[in-house]
Fold:
Amino acid sequence: QEQLVESGGGLVEAGESLRLSCAPSAGTLRINSVGWYRQAPGKQRELVASISSSGITNYADFVKGRFTISRDNAKNSVYLQMNSLKPEDTGVYYCNADLYYSISYYGTYWGQGTQVTVSS
Structure:
């Protein structure tokens, strides 16, 4: 059973937007620090953006100014808003998160991945 569930990928044209979501599959687990990664065909997985439990964010240079990572603690979810998408943003996007059960560290998990395809 996947501990993280991602959604929001799809096929868009260059210049359009998508919003990805990541949340624990079990309501008893709390999402903590999160990283969004992507993997293009034939390439290594790379970090796109991250957010700490306190909301501190970091971005890869290639998405700065276009992507925004955010969290909604009330919904126990993290989002990646992707604007001005380019064909080179195409790939499978993965959520990687530290999960907690109450105040105890539960583990670090990967989501199943969601495909983002940007046509030119």
